[in-house]
Amino acid sequence: MFAKPNWRRPEILLLLLALAMPLSFGVWQALLNNFVIERAQFTGAEIGLLQSVREIPGFLAFTVVFVLLLIREQRLAFISLIATGIGVAITGFFPSTLGLLLTTLLMSVGFHYYEALKTSLALQWLPKDSAAIWLGRIMAVGSLASLLAYGLVWLMSDQWQLDYTWIYLLGGGLTVVIVAALWITFPAFAQPHAQHKKLILRKRYWLYYALTFMSGARRQIFVVFAGFLMVEKFDYSVAEIAQLFIANHLLNLYLAPKIGRFIVRFGERRALTLEYIGLIIVFGGYALVETATAAAALYIIDHLFFSMAIAIKTYFQKIVDERDIASSAAVSFTINHIAAVVIPVLFGLLWLVSPAAVFWCGAAMAACSLLLAQNIPAAPGKGNEVRVGQWVSLEREQTPG
């Protein structure tokens, strides 16, 4: 079905794209807190604003459906990743609030479009019985690339004493070069099922939407405020933050494929239950932590639990109509980012009053997710989407129009 030689397969393309993206985003993420504090004099309020702006394209990810009327999914994924690389590459040239908002917006449009398209293509191209394993491998490859990115940050900042500008430029430039090479090398793969080119919301997907919404809300606590805690409260340097990220991804490189196998063997409900119980404990720990070493341990454990989020995708793959995948992937990204647009700003203000309160809110969100996860059936599928709350029949949902 797909072009030869054998390595020019869709799953290999997904792996290589997963390698390309973190080279730019990992550099951006590793440098961000130190860059904005040292060069732009950010406080919690400004970092919250920046992160909210970063999430706006995620909130608007549903618009990818309309762009797909003009551009094929695979090609749009290439374009999106190139935009991500360019946005990162020029970040160091604009060390001001306005400059950071604009470069972050460009990077984020590319990043969120790519993430929505990556999910769509993976759920279309990967077989259901081994999708979790392949998603674990893709996550592991992403971790390997992140290791390279964070190692590069450590080497260039701590050892070579290079300016932020050159580190951003190299990280973003590497992504652009790799994606351009993949665009030239790989053929345009056929889609197994014709995709709807309109927005689709199905009542029978309601549990997936709820889990996705809570995941987006909860993740902001980790992405925005956990790293900020390390720098503001415990005075972590750029090199120390990079080393912390390296530890995260070394563990993820080893564990992500095993997590995929765990999901295949034990099911989505058990995997998500383990994740959410762990996150309740971790967020409570953030609220109480008083030493840099304990905070670092919480940060690493926190990162590992997020690998379990593979289970949300494989749960959806099992219940979704194959024609809905592209539209649903885009819509789910918007749902994921509804809270993400608001939480960084509101919690940034709450941070000024009580950083611990921010993390207690994260623990409460994880508890809500834990309750939702208990509604996943042992064997999810079309017509068996939830244990309680099956709103409409499959036949009515699939009626055209």
Provide structural commentary.
The chain is mostly helical. It has 15 helices and no strands. Helix 4 packs antiparallel against helix 5 (97-125).
Helices and strands, in N-to-C order?
HHHHHHHHHHHHHHH
What overall geometry do the principal axes of the alpha carbons give? globular
Helix content: over 70%
> What class would the helix/strand composition place it in?
mainly alpha
How many E strands?
0
Biggest sheet descriptor: none
Separation, N- and C-terminal Cα atoms: 31 Å
Radius of gyration, taken over Cα atoms and rounded to an integer in Å:
20 Å
Number of helices, counting only DSSP H or I runs of 4 residues or more: 15
**How confident overall, as mean pLDDT?**
82
Range of strand content: under 5%
Q: What are the segments in which pLDDT stays under 50 over at least 5 consecutive residues?
A: 393-401
